[in-house]
Amino acid sequence: MRVERVLEEVLEKLELKEFTESMENASMRLSTAPYILYNEYPYLQTYEEEVRRAKEEVLKNIDYYIDKSLKSVEKAAGRGLYLERKEEVHRVLLDIIGDNNKLIVKSKSMVTEELEIRGFLESQGHEVLETDLGQFLIQLSGDKPMHTVAPAVHISRLGAIKLLKQLGIDIDEKAAIEDIVYKVRGYLREKFVKADIGISGANVVSADTGSVFLISNEGNIRNTTNLPPIHIAITGIEKIMPNMELAFKQAILQAANAGLYPPTYLSLIAGPSSTADIEFRRVYGVHGPIEKYLILYDGGRKKALENEVLSEQLFCIRCGRCQAECPIWRLVGNIWGGKVYGGPMGMGWTAITEGIEKAAALSHLCLLCGRCREICPMDIDLPRIIHMLKTRYSF
Amino acid sequence: LELLDVDKVSVKLDGEIVIHDPCYYSRYLNIIEEPRRILSKGGINIIEPTRTKRLSYCCGGPIESISPRIASTIARNRFDELKMFSKKLIVMCPICLSNLRNIADEECVVEDVSSYISKIYGVEK
């Protein structure tokens, strides 16, 4: 990839007034919210250091923590797998899902974007639906998610209405945002009940219990992970935390830095649903899923641990706060980025998941202004990573 | 800025200016209070914009060699913020100076800190 091409894509978007205005408005709100929250809930500040130290411990002993997490999942009657490559994940998913026309509901997850799970499962004849409202709109528009937490920041009210109309949903052009949301709720509700499989990411995994922590405000994650008979959680190995307490702290730190605090829902899923009410014999699959899977995905992460500069990116809790503070990201969102990740943290993540060469071309748009480093709750020296990437580009 | 002796400021100016910290001084070198101390001693009333000190906002200049269009869009965003606070802007970096001057409207004055320093130290009348 060349710098010229990166620049072309960015300049193209810069001409779209509706797009840049939506971006600026959303960025303003995204960047202001965490300051107010930290003021109101000062303990968040103390969590930063605790979580950072815990991550140091986990990344230093990553194999131990992967193993421990998987064993804990099995102990809780779930199935845990560590997989290194995308093709392996695809194969395992087909093994679990089967090959005849299943209905799959999905919650938003960047790792599943990395793995191109929706496209893959659709190509195998399954119907896959994104259930996060923003991601649902992204699926309809065919765009790239523009922000880790708010993927459709660039889509306006009217834009959303047009997308729903394409789907055959009866909605008026004058409809308020409330009406749009209500229509989507109705459409997806039926799908949740009928779905065969629910796929989610994980905000955090607790190694001592194998529990998955998931944050949501829409409530879609509860439906996705609870209504279908099978739940599959897929996440990167860097999301492991040593224990429940630290996992909880990381989860709410991420929520606050994304400007959403308290998160409306925090789901903690430690295995398939079960009961021992009859004759005190444990039986799995009651109201929640009968089967639960956790897939820990490498996808270039362990290799990045060997790179002294790039390994810092693995401390990222993916709150997206650096994006809202970045002068370039505020203009064009994740258009400035790789296939999945964009903005300041996106440079490092693209280097990890798609290779240093690709990220090197992207990095030349960075101003190295350093605002991202200033506000990163994990204290990641993002300009240092980006500077390293700049030196890896050959003109 | 780190070497200047504040006690040797000899001329008092008046008026108020809005200060724009360059990324490099504030976030990389941690030179934040030095210019403020000197300018205050020279009688200048310094106004802080919303995004200031370690959270100052880039002028867009560093990307000018790659894209003047992006540089001026960012400069516009920053300039519009600064001018809400004062029509007199003070900058400390040659890139900020040229990039903000490029888009400044006629009613605003963008000056480098050195032109104020030479006045308050009595070097320039």
Task: Name some characteristics of this structure.
heterodimer; A: 395 residues; alpha/beta; six-stranded parallel β-sheet; four-stranded mixed β-sheet; B: alpha/beta; 5 helices; globular
Walk me through the topology.
The complex is a heterodimer of chains A (395) and B (125).
Chain A: H1 3-14, H2 17-40, H3 43-60, H4 62-75, E1 79-83, H5 86-97, E2 103-106, H6 110-114, H7 117-123, E3 127-130, H8 133-141, H9 157-166, H10 177-194, E4 197-200, E5 204-206, E6 211-216, H11 220-226, E7 230-236, E8 240-241, H12 244-257, E9 265-269, E10 274-275, E11 283-284, E12 291-297, H13 301-305, H14 321-325, H15 329-332, H16 343-354, H17 356-363, H18 371-375, H19 382-391
Parallel strand pairs in A: 1-12, 2-3, 2-4, 4-7, 5-8, 7-12
Antiparallel strand pairs in A: 5-6, 6-9, 10-11
Helix pairs in contact in A: 3-12, 16-17, 16-19, 17-19
Chain B: E1 16-19, H1 23-29, H2 33-41, E2 45-47, H3 68-83, E3 88-91, H4 94-103, E4 109-112, H5 113-120
Parallel strand pairs in B: 1-2, 1-3, 3-4
Helix pairs in contact in B: 3-4
Which structural category fits the helices and strands of chain B? alpha/beta
Tell me the helix content of chain B: 40-55%
Strand content of chain B: 5-15%
Strand order of the largest sheet of chain B: 2-1-3-4
* Rounded mean pLDDT score of chain B: 95
Unreliable parts of chain A: none
Radius of gyration of chain A: 21 Å
Number of DSSP E strands of chain A: 12
> Structural class of the helix and strand makeup of chain A?
alpha/beta
Task: State the helicity of chain A in percent bands.
Answer: 40-55%
Number of discrete helical segments of chain A: 19
* DSSP E strands of chain B, number: 4
Q: What string gives the helices and strands of chain B in order?
A: EHHEHEHEH
Strand content of chain A: 5-15%
| Oligomeric category | heterodimer
Mind summarizing the main beta sheet of chain A?
6 strands, parallel
